[in-house]
Design goal:
Layout: E1 4-9, H1 20-23, H2 43-51, E2 55-61, H3 68-80, E3 87-92, H4 100-107, E4 113-117, H5 124-130, H6 139-150, E5 154-157, H7 164-171, E6 179-181, H8 192-206, E7 211-215, H9 227-241, E8 246-248, H10 261-271, H11 277-288
Parallel strand pairs: 1-2, 2-3, 3-4, 4-5, 5-6, 6-7, 7-8
Length: 297
């Protein structure tokens, strides 16, 4: 099918916005060595790769800029310069900040902003260093989630399976805030036991009606992935969330480290039942992120 929406990708221009994590030399991250993607990745390149597989619109996700507002404004300019490519964005906001309402006022002045993201967990080793897991115990984080929902903003949630039960208890107190679970909840342990534990933990989130799940970023913890190796993840997500709460994202250019766009798209074509593809590849993201796409697309 054509008319896909890529609900999770990044763009960057290294002379326009500073990304400390990307420019750090000699550091291997949880997803691998970022050296090959330490270059500009702009909308024209992304469009060429994605459109060849039937993608017609996309959702840009914040990606750790030193100045998040500068990143959001830069993304807005990219969208404004390409009116034939519907693109909205999820921006960074510190939900624990004392000036959160002012931050959100400014961000919501950008027409492309649909939601916010503040990463709760990336991988066990990095989380131990960053301390981001502590957000779940901070009452200001919950208050920020509730404020986002009151404003009509969604929240993109990135975490690891070990945090799902605690996170579900927090999210249950913010039922009006739509949540997009990034990267299927980052199942980092791909052993049979690890996937079983992830699937069990995932039920805590899938039981919450405001949570939608992204099939994205599955190469970050399995650089040699194949359709058969990600099949248990895709099947579990579809079984728990259904097509109405599942959406596709490429996680490019990060997942470009392990694959090309065609290989990623073809894998999901194989794994998502044909009857559900209209929802997973377009409808869910179109509704969740309030994308306005021409009827001809």
């Amino acid at each position: 099918m054509t008319g896909w929406i890529d609900a999770h990708h990044h763009l960057w221009q290294l002379t326009a916005v500073r990304y400390p994590w990307l420019m750090a030399r000699g550091e291997t991250r949880f997803f691998g060595d970022p050296t090959p993607i330490r270059r500009d990745y702009l909308l024209d390149e992304f469009r060429a790769e994605a459109a060849a597989e039937g993608v017609v619109a996309s959702v840009h996700i914040q990606v750790g800029a030193a100045d998040p507002l500068a990143e959001a404004r830069w993304v807005q300019r990219q969208a404004d310069a390409a009116p034939d490519w519907p693109m909205v964005q999820v921006v960074f906001a510190d939900l624990t900040a004392a000036d959160l309402p002012a931050q959100l006022d400014t961000l919501q002045g950008l027409s492309t902003v649909r939601g916010v993201r503040q990463i709760v967990g990336r991988a066990p080793g990095e989380d131990a260093q960053t301390g981001t897991n502590a957000l779940l115990d901070d009452p200001r984080f919950l208050a920020g989630l509730q404020e986002a929902g009151r404003r009509g903003l969604s929240f993109d949630l990135q975490l690891i399976p070990e945090l799902m039960a605690k996170t579900a208890r927090v999210l249950a107190q913010a039922p009006e805030t739509p949540v997009a679970l990034c990267h299927a909840g980052s199942p980092h342990d791909r052993s049979a036991a690890g996937l079983a534990a992830w699937a069990e933990a995932l039920t805590r989130l899938s039981d919450l009606p405001q949570v939608t799940c992204k099939l994205s970023g599955l190469g970050m913890f399995d650089h040699g992935w194949t359709p058969d190796r990600i099949r248990p993840i895709v099947d579990t997500v579809l079984a728990q969330f259904g097509p109405e709460r599942t959406m596709f994202g490429s996680n490019f250019p990060v997942d470009k480290l392990y694959s090309d766009y065609r290989t990623v798209a073809e894998a999901y074509r194989q794994l998502v039942p044909a009857a559900w593809q209209g929802r997973v590849f377009r409808g869910t993201a179109e509704h969740f992120y309030r994308l306005r796409i021409p009827a001809s697309a």
